Amino acid sequence: MFSTVWPGPDRRLHRPVSMTPFVPHPLTGDVIRAAIDVHRGLGPGLLESVYEECLAWELHQRRIPFRRQVSIGVAYKDVHLQVGFRADFLINDELLVELKAVERMLPLHHAQVISYLRLLELHRGLLINFNVPRLTLGIRSFLNGPPPDPGSGSAASSGNDLEQRAPLGVVADDPDLAGGKPEVPFPRE
Predict the structure, then answer these.
(1) Quick one: which H or E segment has residue 54?
(2) Among 61, 70, 51, which Cα is nearest to 30's?
(3) How distant, in Å, are the alpha carbons of 11, 166, 168, 186 from that of 172?
(4) Between helices 48-61 and 26-42, what is the axis angle to 10°?
(5) What pLDDT sits at residue 83?
(6) Cβ of 74: how many Cβ atoms within 10 Å?
(7) Could you tell me the end-to-end alpha-carbon distance of the chain, in angstroms, rounded to an integer?
(8) What is the pLDDT of residue 145?
(9) How far apart are CA 130 and CA 51, in angstroms?
(10) DSSP 8-state secondary structure symbol assigned to residue 121
(11) Contact 87, 124 (CB under 8 A)
(12) C-beta separation of 122 from 142 below 8 A
C-alpha cells in the first residue's frame, strides 16, 4: 500500500508515497473548472482578494457548498488555541482550497496547505496560483495521508469540530453582519 523512497544520490529522504493509482475527486474537478472560468475572465495580475471574490461567486452559481476564510485552531494539551490561521475556502467540509496571486510558488505556500490539511484533519487540498498565463500551470493538488474510510466518522468530527461551526453557506460571527445583511451574497465565516 505505501512504499518509502530511500535517499538516492542527492541524499534527500522522501516521504512515503502511495502506490495506488490517483483517482480524482469530482469535487476537486468542479472547483478547478470554476477557477479556470475565473482565470479566463480576469487573466493574471490582480490581487488575491479579487480572485477570491470571483471564485466565491462561481462556486455559488454552481451550487457548490463552501465556506470562506475559515478560522483554523490548534488543539494542544486539551486546550483549543486560535493561532490566526485562516483557510481561503473549505469546500463541502472535505476539500481545502488556498488561493495565491504570486510570481512563483514557494515551499512556504506548500507548507501552509499541508499544515492546514493536518490541523483540519482533511484529506484533499488545492493550492491555486492565479498569477500564471494558463491556470493549469498554477494548480497543485495535495493529499494528506491515506483516504478516509467511508464507513468511519468524517474529518468534521475531529478536534477542530467543523460540525460545531456554522453550516456551509451560513455566515457565523461576522462583524459585517451587524446590519443583518452581508456586504456580498457569499458565505463567509
Answers:
(1) helix 48-61
(2) 61
(3) 48, 6, 10, 12
(4) 120
(5) 82
(6) 14
(7) 38
(8) 77
(9) 7
(10) T
(11) no
(12) no
Give the type of residue at 71.
S
Give 4's DSSP letter.
Answer: P
**3-class state of residue 12 by DSSP:** coil
pTM of the model: 0.68
135: amino acid identity, one letter? L
Residue stretches of the chain with pLDDT short of 70: 1-24, 146-189
Residue for grid cell 495506488: 20
Compute CA distances 164 → 58, 158, 172, whole Å: 26, 11, 11
Provide the residue count of the chain: 189
- CB proximity list for 158: less than 8 A, separation 6 or greater: 120, 121
pLDDT at 144: 85
Residue 38: name the closest of 23, 56, 24, 16 by CA: 56
Distances in Å between the alpha carbon of 161 and those of 30, 41, 43, 157? 25, 36, 37, 5
**CA 141: distance to chain centroid?**
10
CB-based contact 128:35 (threshold 8 Å): yes
CA-closest candidate to residue 143, choices 160, 124, 157, 164? 124
Predicted pLDDT of residue 150: 60
- The pLDDT score that the predictor gives to residue 159 is 40
